[in-house]
Amino acid sequence: MKLILLSGGSGKRLWPLSNDARSKQFLRVLENEQGELVSMVQRVWNQLDASGLSESSYIATGKSQVEIMRSQVGADVPLIVEPDRRDTFPAIALAATYLYSIKGVSLDEVVTILPVDPYVDNHFFETVRSLEDAIEESQADLALIGVEPTYPSSKYGYIIPSGETTVTGIRQVSRFQEKPTEAYAEQLIAEKALWNCGVFAFRLGYIINLLEQKGLPIHYEQLLMNYSKLPKISFDYEVVEKAANIVAVPYTGYWKDLGTWNTLTEEMSNTQIGRGIISEDCENTHLVNETKVPVTVLGMKDVVVAVSPDGILVSDKASSPKLKELVNFDQGPMFEERQWGWVHVLDDQTYEDGRCVSTKRIGLKQEHNLSYRSHTEREEVWTIVKGEGEFVLNGNMMQVSAGNVLHIPVKAMHSLKARSEMEFIVVQTGMFERENRLVELFHSWEDIAQNCMKI
Q1: Domains, in order of start, for the chain
Q2: On the CB side of 283, how many CA atoms lie within 13 Å of its CA?
Q3: What is the pTM assigned to this prediction?
Q4: What's the confidence (pLDDT) of residue 21?
């Protein structure tokens, strides 16, 4: 069995910590067994590893998430990279063609699709493993995992069985219901309905044949070139709801979708992360602060306060699901986690004479480096404020440390490697109407040293 984890998302439901560059699955707010803060994707990947499934797993993600994914789960985890975000059907189609034409996976192989951010116990992955047997036993087009409901939720979709159950407990699926009212949910539960947790399996040949029927490429490189032409539609609407033979494997155990602040805070071990104070008279109140600015919360009940460089949220927990529809600020991410470190935008201004000035604080991990790069329309001034390293400018290398100020002219090739953990302030200036492009020649320090440095 091959396992594909889907990692996407627009980054709005857990704003201001999440953004277009850092979706909810990358937020380090959960505790592992060692008491360390980890993200949802780190937690799930560790569970896959403990279950013996990681070696046959891939992560499908967008190109904007590649660096943060590498930073959190490691450089060796295999990624299938979407050139742009086009919903789950195109993402799964691309992953299927990658397995078929690049990895040479048999058309009879069972492929399981799993969201990258479920909050589950480890034994959930034994149910994931059982989907392969479910496909073999039932010869169904699709096999899904359905969670045994613990209450009539209006937040989840439901899988309604037909009443037919095999000896091993596999249920034939009759239909689906999206987010019913609580009253209707009670009725569905009486019909033995299951929560739809978005996990399903199929033989690889099922999707490859489907792509051929739709006149879509079945080879990865061809589909990649035509990716922007694929419809933006979910796999549920395009495939699942049209499949003729679907079965569901029940799962009885803990499962939760941590998609909003109210559900996420229920699983946080600490009521406070970051600098601030929550007064003793607060009830069921959480503070998550990623900035150095202290935040004080007094006398609040059932409230979440979240603070990041992107903004500030103060919300009643029950109202937090409305956030996705309300947040639409016209600004790029103010904080980004990269494979080599992080970037924090401090200020971004455009002046009357057309000049634009962007100020950033950048962190570079020890023994990591920036690519060998140049800016086509911007000059930069760097002030090293922490650590020491090696700086290259147009092939000339010099040792730099805290206190050094470096000037990088427009189009000058440059890079930096940290010998110890480094931080530096970047002031980038240019004319707003001239579109700036980042040109990168080499990424590894070995390639930079071999090809770019003057002897």
Answers
A1: 2-257 (3.90.550.10), 261-326 (no CATH), 340-451 (2.60.120.10)
A2: 1
A3: 0.85
A4: 78
